[in-house]
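Reviewer comment 2.1 asked that we show a complete input and output for one of the modelled complexes. We chose the magnesium ion case, as it is the one discussed in the main text.
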Amino acid sequence: MERTLILVKPDGVQRGLMGEIIARFERRGLKLIGMKFMQMSQELAEEHYGVHKERPFYGALVSYITSGPIVAMVWEGNDAVAAARGTIGATKPSAAAPGSIRGDFGMEIGRNLVHGSDSPENGIKEASIFFNDDELVDWNRATEAWIVE
Ligand code: IDP
Ligand code: MG
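Response of the prediction step:
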């Protein structure tokens, strides 16, 4: 079972798209196991985006992600990482497929609304940066047998 860290970035919150974005993952069939509304600190942003430290857009990326509140979530499922990346769409919203979150709501790479982990290993790692074990919920979903064979 994979886990993916999903963030509704500050533009998604400010534009009133939290519910819309969360609904996409919920309807897809992923299972929510953790959620918080929070403001990312500089330290957390640098830890989360440390892999991009040498990229020219790093400074702008850290100020973007810390510019307002976000929704942090952990979603679980078979192939959760790839499924969520499909629901999110390509990094550059103007090139993202219609029907994806970025393809439906975004125009620019620096305002691309949502984060999703890029590998199962990073899903586990990123979830643990944002959530303690006791903040993740083990629950039985009533519809499970209609989503998972
Ligand atoms: P991803 O979010 O689709 O996984 P990454 O390549 O991991 O994309 O980049 C992380 C984030 O950095 C992107 O979501 C976007 O917000 C930002 N970013 C990536 N490339 C650029 C760029 O060329 N200019 C500005 N921001 C960028
Ligand atoms: Mg990435």
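The chain has a mean pLDDT of 98. We note this here for comparison with the apo prediction described in Section 3.2.
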